[in-house]
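This section describes the prediction task in plain terms. A model, or a person checking by hand, is given the sequence of a single protein chain and must write out its three-dimensional structure as a string of C-alpha cells. No templates, partner chains or ligands are provided. The sample shown here is typical of the held-out split.
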Amino acid sequence: MADLAQTPPRSLSRAIPLGAVPVWSGIALLLFLALPLIRTGRRFLPLDYMLHPLSLGAGLHWAPAVAAFAVIALYLRPAPRPAQARRRADMAAVILSLGFVGLWAALFSAGTPFGWGAMGASLALCIAAGSALSESNRVRGDAFTGAGILLTLLFVTLFITYPLVMVIRSAVWIEGVLTLDQFRATFSSSLFLFVDNRFTEVNEARMVAYWATAGGAVALAWGLWSSRAAALWRRAWMVPLWVGAGLIAGWAVGIMIWGRGALPSTLLVAVIVAPAATMLGFALALLGQRTNSRAVRGILGVASVLPFITPPFVIGFSMIFLLGRRGLLSHDILGISPFANPLYGAPGVILAQVLGLAPVAYLIIRGSLNSLNPALEEAAQTLGASRWRVFKDVTWPLVRPGIAASLLLASIESIADFGTPLVLGGDRNFLATEVFLALTGRYSQSEASVYGVVLLFLVVLVFIASRWMLGVKGFATVTGKPASGAFLALPRSLEWILLSLAGLWFAFILSLYGVIVYGSVVELWGINNTLTFRHYIEFWNTGWPVVWYTMKLSVASAIPAMMVGGLIAYLVTRHRFWGRSYLEFGSLLSFATPGTVMGLAYILAFNDGTLLMTSTSAIIVLALVFRNMPVAIRASMSGLAQIDRSLEEASATLKAGSGTTLVRVLSPLLLYPLLAGLIFAFVSAMTAVSQVIFLVSAGNNLATVMLLARVERGQLGVAAAMATVLIVMLLALIVLLLVASRYLDARNRGKGLSI
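The expected answer:
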C-alpha cells in the first residue's frame, strides 16, 4: 500500500509539462482580450473598455488571438521526439511573428494610437517567440535568453534606431518628395555659415582662402620631406593627398576664425574645449596619483563629483553672477564696463565648458594612470632614462587610450551642449541650439532635422579621429601578475606648478558654486544685495512640485535603465547570436548622439499615428531610459569581464536557468557596476535638459527645464535657489546610495559573494 501511495496516478504521469511558449501565448491572449486595444487620445489612462477587441469587430487586429490559439493548440499534442519538437518550435515562432506583424499592420493602417492591450499582447508574443527560438536551438540558451534577445532587439530598434532614421528621413523627404533642397537652403543660410560680411573692413572670405592656401603649402612641404625621407619614387603619390588634406584643414581653421554662424562657432568651441579640458584633467590626474598629500586627493575627488550633480548650464549661469555685466569679479572688483564685457559669446562658452568637462577628463585619465604598472617606469629609470624621457617614452604612450577617450567625450559633449550656449552664447549661433530654435521658433521640422544630421556627422568624425589617434598599437600592461613598485614621484618644481594650477582651478570652481548660493539669498544680484529668503519661498510654492515630479520620473527611468542595461551587457558578453553586434552598437548609439537630436528624433517618431506618445510622461521616461542605459551597459560589461564563467556553469549544473543565474549569482557580484549605472541614470535624469526640452508639456514639466526658463526670463534669484536645492539634494542622495552600497557589499562579503 505504501508503494502504491508513492506511485503517481497513471494520468498524472502522462501529463504534459507546461512550457514557456504556450504559457506566454496564453498571457498574450488574455491581455489582448482584457485590455483596450487602442486609445482615442494621447493619454494612456483612464482605461476605456469600449475600445477592447470585442467592441471593435472583426479584422486583422485579431491576428494575435488567432496566433496564440494556434500555438496553444499546437502544444496540446503529445510531446514529440526532439527533431519534431524543434520543428514545432520553429512553427510556433513563425505563427507568433505573423500575429505580431498582423496586429501592428492593422494599427498602422488605421492610424489609431496603440493601447494597453496592443502593448501587453505584443510584449507577451515577443517573449513567447523568443522562447520558441530557444526551444528550436535557433538561439543557444534557455527561454529567458531567447526572450531577452528578442525584447532587447525590439527595444533598441524602436526607441533608438527608428527615431534616428526618422531624423534623416525628415531632412530629405519633404512633402512626399525625396529632395536635398532643405540641405541647400540651410547650408546657404547665414545662421549656418556666414563668411563674407560686407559691413566689416576685413574681407573674411579672402582671409579664409589665405588660411586654406597656407594649410596646403605646409602640407606640401611636409609631404615632400616625408617622401624624400622614404624614397621619393615610392611615396610621391601621397603628396597630392597631403596637399588636399592641408587645404581642407586650413580652410576649416580659417572658417572657425573668420566665419560666423552655427557651424564655425560649434567647431571653434569644440576644437579649443576638448584639448584644454583634457590637458587640465591630465594635469589634475597626474597630481592626484603622484602627490603624497591626502588633502589634495580628497579635494580632487570631491570636485570631480560636482559636474555630475549639476545641471549642464548651471556653471554658465553662475559665471553670469561672477563674470557677467554686473558680476562680482568683472564689475565690482575689476570695474569692467557692462558694454565691454567679453563673457557672452565664444569665450564664455569655452570657459564654462572647460570648467565643466575637466573633472570628467580627470576621472577618465586617472583610471588610465592607475592601471599602469609602476615596474615599467622603474625599469626605464634603472636603465638611465631621465624623468622626462620616462614620461615621454613610457607613461605618455600607455596613457594614450585615456587621453583619446577624454578627447572623444569632451568633443562630443562640447558639440552637443545645449544649455551653456543658450545662456552664454550671446550673438553666436550653435548647432545644438539651432536644432531647438528651428523647431520651436521657425517651426521647420526639416530644417531642425538638417541641423541634427550635421551634428550626427560631426560625432561620427570625432569617433573616426579618436580611432586614428589610437591606431593599432597595444596598450596592455595588466598581465594578471602582481605589480610591484611605486609610481615615480613628480619633480618638486612640477608638483608645485600642478598644485598652483589645481588651487586656482578649485578656487574658481568654489567661487562659482559659492555665488550661486549667495545669489539665492539676495534680493537682486548687483543691484540690491539685501539678504532674503524670498526666492526659496517662491521656489517652494512654484518649483518644488516640479522637482518632486522630476524625482519620480527619474526613479521610474533609472531602474529600467539599470535593469535593461545589465541584461544587454549579459547577453552581449555571455552569448553569441545573430544581431549581437547591432544590439551592442545600437544600444550605445543613443549616448553618443547629441541630446537635442535624440529629443527631435522622439518628436518625429512618436508625435502622431499609431506610436503617438508625446505630451505624456511615458515618452519622457522612455527617452531618459534609453539615453542613460549605455552607462549601465558598459559598467556591467566591465564587471562581467572579471567574473569567471565557472560560476555560471556551476549554476547551470544545478539546473538553474539563465534568469535565476543572472539574478541570484551574477547580480550580487555586479553590485557596484549596477549601482553606478543606477546613480548615473538617476542623476542624469534629474539634470537632463537637451534630450527632454522638446518632450515637456503643460502637465509634464521638469526641474531643469523650468530652471533654464527662469534664467532666460532673468529670474536669477529663484533660479539660484532652485539650483542650490538640486545640487544639495543630489549630493545627499549619492552619499546615501554609496553608504547603502557599502552595507550591501559587506553583507555579500559575509556570504562569500564578493569578487
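For orientation: The first strand starts at residue 173 and ends at 174.
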